Known about the structure:
Elements (H helix, E strand, L loop, with lengths): L11 E5 L3 H7 L12 H14 L3 E8 L7 H18 L4 E6 L18 E3 L5 E8 L1 H10 L21 E5 L17 E5 L8 H11 L9
Parallel strand pairs: 1-2, 1-6, 2-5, 3-5, 6-7
Antiparallel strand pairs: 3-4
Helix pairs in contact: 2-3
Amino acid sequence: MEVPKFKRLPRHIAIIPDGNRRWAQARGLEKHEGYDNGIIPGLKVYDICVRLGIEEVTFFGFTQDNTKRSEVQRKAFVDSCIKSVQELSKRDAELLVVGNTNSDMFPKELLPYTKKTKFGKGKIKINFLVNYGWYWDLTYAYDNSSDKEKMVENIASADITRIDLLIRWGARCRLSGMLPIQTVYSDIYVVDEMWPDFKPEHLYNALEWYQDQDITLGG
């Protein structure tokens, strides 16, 4: 399918890939079997965004709250995050994984990616939130800043820039704690279909919708 042309593109897109468990259940599968089917959609998003010239994409991998789920589900979404990041490292991207590395829930396989690393030609900046928590993110600034006026500069996710457009799959219209500082002025677009059912049209429709949004940043 030919990539459409847009008069205005967001510089930074965030992706909440929701609906993996519901997708699996609808097909008579166990909940945890949905996560592995969410890897290819992420790679498709990467390909489209590179072709469009999007500068930065952030994927919501899993949160600290998600780790309360059953062990089999935890293993499934952790493994999917590891596979996704490793696959992206084979492409032209600058990768950064952000999450609480002091927790046993953070996969050791992703520790090398917690510092920005350029792979290939580094055509796009890709952030992956792994074992991320909004409270951990914000309190990190209190613990690591002597100048309270500069706390925003010292949040754990400080290397991730302001998000222009946030797209959530799975029909639910909520942020689920995703990057409260960076999403403060984000336009939010909700896709009814589940993430494993990703189609390029979902992304194109979100970008078409974005064309008509009034971007004022509060001004």
